TrEMBL record:
InterPro entries assigned to the protein according to its UniProt record, in alphabetical order: KR_dom, NAD(P)-bd_dom_sf, Sc_DH/Rdtase_CS, SDR_fam
Domain Ketoreductase positions: 6-183
Top-level taxon in the UniProt lineage: Bacteria
Statement: the UniProt record of this protein carries the keyword Oxidoreductase: yes
Source species: Asanoa ishikariensis
Family membership noted in the UniProt record: Belongs to the short-chain dehydrogenases/reductases (SDR) family.
Pfam family, one: adh_short
MF terms (GO), sorted A to Z: oxidoreductase activity, acting on the CH-OH group of donors, NAD or NADP as acceptor
Gene3D superfamilies, A to Z: NAD(P)-binding Rossmann-like Domain
Record-given protein name: NADP-dependent 3-hydroxy acid dehydrogenase YdfG
Entry keyword set: Oxidoreductase
Classification via PROSITE patterns: ADH_SHORT
């Protein structure tokens, strides 16, 4: 998918990967973008800094179907049919068996169900046109795991599974789907985890190069152009995934050793 001339929606757009995607997509010559975030003021500031004529900002709770439907309507009324919808919002917990039911529900809502809500809102018009693209930020945790964060590991796996289902169900009807699965990225989410001493954040920071959001955005543009299902800003994730598939017992043993080193069983 070439971005020039396309209409794009990005959720979780106000910071981190979302804002880097917005700036890079603007450089690629998109026709218009709607930047959605729970923090409407931050989204507005980003839209203004990029190009107010090119962008619109919308405060949006991605778990609310009515708000997401309204988000799609704003994009259509402002710029035309949505060509690319980036479901980028996500949350971590840093907890394990002690996770409250409320936190589990919130993780499911933001990390999984928000992708479902977005697809319901934007796919019908894409299918009518026989063209459209969904980019879903799923994390390397969706292919591997997340040390010290059970809800994040589980929900990101589910997010990858939903992206796979969308691709196999609608891929022959003109719908492209990519799952963005980075490892460590220097975002407010990672920095907050490090500040709180979450084991998973420390493992992420130590297990490979921590990329900038801009580097991730570069990988996304390249991955969309190639229309790859898995976009892996950290190429080594593919190797780890292969090792996991080839010998799950050995992989799990290595993860137990890693947990022992960081001193956390969540």
């Amino acid at each position: 998918m070439e971005l020039a001339g396309k209409v794009v929606v990005i959720t979780g757009a106000a910071g981190g990967i979302g804002s880097a995607l917005a700036r890079r997509f603007a450089d690629e010559g998109v026709a218009g973008m709607v930047l959605a975030d729970l923090d409407a003021d931050a989204a507005e500031a980003l839209a203004t800094s990029i190009n107010r004529g090119l962008t619109r900002a919308v405060g949006c709770d991605v778990t609310d179907p009515a708000q997401v439907a309204a988000l799609v309507e704003v994009a259509q009324e402002s710029f035309g049919p949505v060509d690319l919808f980036c479901s980028n919002a996500g949350i971590t917990t840093g907890t394990g068996l002690d996770t409250t039911d409320e936190s589990w529900d919130r993780a499911w809502s933001v990390n999984v169900h928000a992708h479902v809500v977005a697809a319901r809102a934007v796919l019908p018009s894409m299918l009518d046109r026989g063209a459209g693209y969904l980019l879903q930020t799923c994390s390397a945790a969706g292919l591997l795991t997340a040390v010290g964060d059970a809800p994040y590991a589980v929900t990101k796996h589910a997010a990858v599974a939903f992206a796979e289902w969308l691709s196999m169900t609608y891929g022959d009807r003109g719908i492209g789907v990519s799952a963005l699965c980075p490892q460590g990225v220097r975002t407010p989410m990672l920095e907050a985890g490090l500040a709180r001493g979450h084991a998973g954040a420390h493992v992420t920071a130590l297990s490979g190069e921590v990329l900038t959001p801009e580097q991730v955005a570069d990988a996304v543009v390249e991955g969309l152009a190639a229309e790859r299902f898995l976009i892996l800003p950290h190429p080594e994730v593919a190797t780890y995934q292969q090792r996991k598939a080839e010998n799950p017992d050995r992989w799990l043993a290595s993860m137990r050793k890693l947990i022992s080193r960081v001193g956390s069983t969540a």
